[in-house]
Predict the 3D structure of the following.
Amino acid sequence: MSRVSVVSWCGFFVASVLASSAFGQDPSIQPSAAPTSQEAVTSTRDWHYGGYVDVGYIGNFNFPDNQLWRNRATAAHHNQLSPNMGLAYVRKDAKESSRWGMELGFQGGRDSEEFAFLVGERRVDGADVLRHIHRANMSYLAPVGNGLTITAGLFNSLMGYESLYAKDNANYTRSWIADNTPYMMFGVNTQYPLNDNLTVTAFVVNSYYHLAHPNDLPSYGGRWVWKAMPRFTLTQTLYAGPTQTDTSLEFWRLYGNHILEWRGDDVTVAASFDIGTESIAIQPGRPRTFVMGGNMVVRWHITGPWSVALRPEFYWDRNGRWTGSEQFVKAITSTVEYKLSYKWTNMVVRAEHRYDDSTGAGGGFFKNGGIRPDVVGLAREQHLLLLGVLVSFDSP
């Protein structure tokens, strides 16, 4: 059991430009569908349950011998039918009429294998079992002012906007920003709506990634969400904490995630910008590492079941601290979606093309044919063509 001690946190301000999102919140924080009768109100007022299956085939035109996407945690198995995710959950909402809430869910699949670590990080004991937990938390809505919600346990990440689950995003593959920020957090958070348009949250978590264990000290952060106009929302999350064995303040990781989103009736436009820094204690000269990334997502609901999405992005890992390789990546992803709904069940079929270009001292993607039998060859560019089938069931 890791000991938790209180460490004072100097506030961290990241000068930022507009910030962004991937589309669709995690279903665990979405409002429920409106019931159609008093009986429905009674039966679905507090408890919700659901399940999800994601199967895809991703064709990689580099035809890598190991069938892997280098430096990636999600949708990383190529040129084979891949069961990327399956999960089941139960949730009770915390409301004024019933102030205690909870979430519990379990998951499996290839997207659950490496999503909770950075390259080379020390892992918590039992990480290979714990990665199968989707959520596990308790919450309480305290009768304080406008309502203070306290949540403890494993909860949806307060950093970033894209979900680990493809069904909640505009595109099937996730952005580089998303794959290198936490999808989940383990600790405590408190959320308070100052008014109808501004909500603030503070959190204390075990580490940047919830299944990493670099030391026994916690990390800290905060988030504000401002609904500047009815269709226009800005979000900023700041994180600070020790992610190395040496926990001195000079070696803490500082990270800023920024989100701006405009939602129309049929078109959603979002932009994002992330920046992070950390000095490395064990390397000569204690170099300061930097990471920076941004993307823009445009999603258009054309008509009926048809939608399309486009996401250009960039990601700069100057020292290879986040991805494991010193590289600058440019990518563009285009997606066509067909959605078939029946009551509480949705089936989504997505066809997607993605192009990535990676340069820098450590840049590149796996390709067919190695330099030597024990050294995998690298290509600067990578084209992916994929078909994904996503089936979900979510009770109202």
Observations:
- The helical segments are 38-44, 127-130, 176-179.
- The chain has one domain: 47-394.
- The radius of gyration is 21 Å.
